[in-house]
Each structure stands twice: as structure tokens, then as C-alpha cells.
Design goal:
Length: about 600
Amino acid sequence: MGIFRTKFYPLTEKNLPEKSVSPENVNRLIKKDKFVKIQHNTKKRVNFPSGTITTPNMIHRVLTKMGYGANDESVSHIQSLPGATDTDKIFAYIDEQLYPMSIDDSVAESQLNNGYETLNKTRIQLYQDHYRRPDGMDIPWEVHVRPGRETNYASYLRATQSKRQLLEILVDFWHNHFNVYMDSGGVQPMFVHYDRDVIRDNALGSFRQMLEDVTTSTCMLDYLGNGVNDKDAPNENYARELLELHTLSAKSYFGHMAPEDVPVDGQGRKVGYVEADVLEMARVLTGWSYSGADWWDYQNGNVATGEFLYRDEWHDKDPKVILGQTFNFDQNNPLSDVRSVLDMLAEHPATAEFLASKLCKRFISDNPSQSIIDAVANTLHLNWQAQDQIKLAMETLLKSNEFLNTWGEKIKRPFERIASSMRQIGVTFDFSPNHEYSSWMFWSLDTTGQNLFYWTSPNGYPDTKMSWLGASNTMATWRFMQWFTRLRDGNNGDVPFNDILNITNAAIPDANNHTANNLVNFWFEKACGHPPSVDVQDKLAHFMSYSETDTLDWTPTDRDTQIDLSTNTWPSYNQERLYAMVSSIFLTSEFMYR
């Protein structure tokens, strides 16, 4: 992996530091017996007081948990929907979001014409323009990586400005479930195809279809090496992850147990898999490749296309036994053996349980109740052949009491915090690949530890509280949010990228009411869904009420005294102080919850 980075990254590219060890992994390094001994020998224990988490209003909760956060437009839209109660309106909103193509998203989609060149290219065009040219000429690094970069920028734009918020969250979820590392091999030039045709098209559709689309995608075939899986030397990489990470899960792995000893369920299915099944899986996947994976594909005048290619001469045609079932090769239908295995895996109850568990952990809590996991798993299993299987499962999840009434059991990961804060302040930047600010944001996100599609191992970014409480990624995220909240475009008359001033004036139209107390109360409740605590309000209003005099002496004013937001001049810089106060709200724990 990373051969293109090693060979082609120009010296001007930023060096990426190694990822730090998360608190979870550090704990695993501590010997359990030693840790317990230290605890027992402690004479005085410190009992930390347990804090309470204020629960926001229901509209704010739902917009934060099933999307990238509330903004004025989305809140107003839900309030306008039919229904006598907020719950009725929320259910109507969920129904809308489950059918994303029925939502008019033309405003956000139109911005994808501003400098984006690869998002509509076919799989063949992506391969021949950015991976391997038909004439064999070298492809410049910036051309090679452009599809990957454009997908990254487009993800920013859609997260912050798309009305199809549930779709965007699920696209992120499935990208992590079927993770491919962006800088691996030939992933960058083909990533538009992976995002658009494999993940995005199936995000609310059929898991079985998505499973096959992933298996035949150029990105996954490159990333885990199945593109060169030959019967003479079967490659276990993808076979293992297909069973462990994509379908049955590590929970269903019985190690080196004899296959015949694996227990069966009431329907006669093997309840899990063993090492022998991984080896058989590698054999059945032989020959599933793409045009360009083999050196001969582009020699002697041959032109590679990057499309899926079944290589009959590489395929193992002997019978294979996986989970106790025998799969035979059919020369008249050479893809049938793999497809039958994928059918078996997609139908298996362990797959439904695994997917349901991950979905509930993403949308509800790190430890969701077994009852909601079972309900979602049952929907997935009963509808495994339905074209809208995932939509039906999400309806079960999103309309559950567990989803609607749980709060603070999860925290926003860095990208989620950044996107939700951008939505709050009305960022309308189009993240054009040709704009230098897009590159700045790309590298700034990298410092937070969650640059999209850059998790190196196939298990995807972690989705637990503990994984994102480290000081380094928290501080980097804070710096990022403070920077863009106050960012100004010097090329356009020093215009701020945010819409904070206009939002404030629209919400508090009487300038006489622009006081420290009113400004803090409005922005905190807007961002967090509930009024600030007395302590938080005191500190923010204290900051907002300070005004510098021409003697360079900072003095507090009365917190109910008008602050003139029509000026941003020395010495008070009132507008800049407002921006700083809003960015400070984004640093609070209340804003971090979801």
C-alpha cells in the first residue's frame, strides 16, 4: 500500500505523521494483573462527581444524530411538516430522508460543477485518464490523485449543504464498513467510482448488491489484493475481511476448530466460520479481477479499462466447502459459485446481527440495547433479498424509542463536529478543487486524525467515545473550527466565510437587543439545542461584554448594554468578538454530544 505516495508525492506535499495510539489501545498495553494490583494498593480513591447532560429538544437531537447537525433551514423545514406534535413532524421528516432522491438537492448538487472535473467520469474514463493511460505515458501526480481529492471535497460540500442528510451519514457509515485506504495502490484514481457507484448508490438499498459491487470494484480489488488472486497462490486478504469485517464478523470466528465441529442453528446453518473456511473463501474468489491488474493487460498494444474482469484461467474450478455448504463451478455460469457464496453470507443471521449492531452503535450509543439490535437485525434478515432492505432496517431503527430518546451516549467525531459547526454558521463555500482554501481544509482535517478515507486498515475509523477523546485530535479539531469560523476571503474584499452576522441580525432584528446576554443565549441554544448552563453563560457573556478602549485597557461593560455589530473596527472589533464567541461554543462538551 502507499506505493504511489512513496513514488510520486512531490516534496511540497505535507508529510503525514504516524497515527498516535488511542486511549483504547494504550489500555490494552497494560497488563491486567498489574493494573488490578495497583488499584487494590491505593489507600485513597478519588471519587469524581458524575455530571449531568442536558437533553436538547427533539428536533435538534434528530438532526444531530441522523445528519450532520441542525441549521436554520432544516429546523424550519421540520417545523413546517404536518403533524400535531414534534414526534409527528419528526416521523414525517424521517420518511422524507428515507427517500433521498425525492428531495430537491439541486442547490448543493449545482455547486459540484464549480471546478469539479471527475465526479461524472465513467469507470473506464477514470482508469484511463488517472490510473493508466492507453498510450502508456506517465500521469502527473496531481492528475492521478484528483478523483480522490474531488471525492473528499464533495463529501465536505454535501455534509454541510445537502438536504439529504441521512444519505450522507449512511454513505460515511458504509465507507467505513467497506473501508479502503485512499493512498493504497490505485485507489485514488478510481475512488469516484467507488463512492458514487458502489457506496452511494447502495447506501439505502440492498446489502447483497452492495456486497457484490464492493467485491468487483477496482478499489477493493486493488486494496486487498484480490485483483491478482490466482489459483496457483490463493490470496487470503480479501477472503478474510469479507468474512470478518463485511459479513459474519469476528464474533462468529471459531479459529482452527474442525469445520464439522462448528455448531448449527435451528435452520441447519453453521453459526460461524473457521480458518478452513477462510482458505476455501480465498479459493472461490480466485480469478475475480479487473482489466489492468495483470501486466499483460496493457502490453503489445492491449488497452486496460479498469473494469471488473473474470479470469477463467486463474479461477479454481474444484468444489469448495464453506460453512458446511459445497459450491461447485459451472462452466456455463462461471460467476455463479462466488455469487452463491455471497447469497449465503448476505442471508446469514450473523451478518444481519453484525450490521444491526454497527448501525445501532452509530445512531444510538456505544452499547445499544439488545432489543433494538434484534429488531433491526430481524428487519435486515427478513428482507435480505429486498431492493430497499437497508431503508426498511433504518426505518425500524430511526422510529424506535431508543433512537428518539437517547442523547449524549455518543460524541461527534472530528469531521462531524466540523461539518455541524459549518452548518450552524451558514458556510456556503463550494470546496472547489481549484480553490486554495479547499486544500487548506483537506490538510487541516488530516491533523484531526479523521481525514476522510484515510484510515489505513480495513476496519474503518472507530466509532466509540473513547476513540476520540484524545488530546491531540481534540485540540486539532478545536483549532480547525476556530480558524474557519473567523476565516476571511482576502480576494473578495475580506469577506468572512461564515454568515454569523446575518444570522444574528435575522434572529435579533432590533439592534438595541444586541447585548452580551442575548447574543450568547441565542447562539448557544441554536448550536446545542438548549439554553446554556449558568456557569457557561457567565463565562461567554463575560467575554462578549468586554470592550477595549483607546487606552488599550480591556474593561467589561454591562451585559445588557447594546453591542454595535455594525462595526468591526479597532479597538473593540465587535464582529470579530462575536465570531470568536460563537467558535468558543463549538469547543464546549455540549456541542460535542450526539
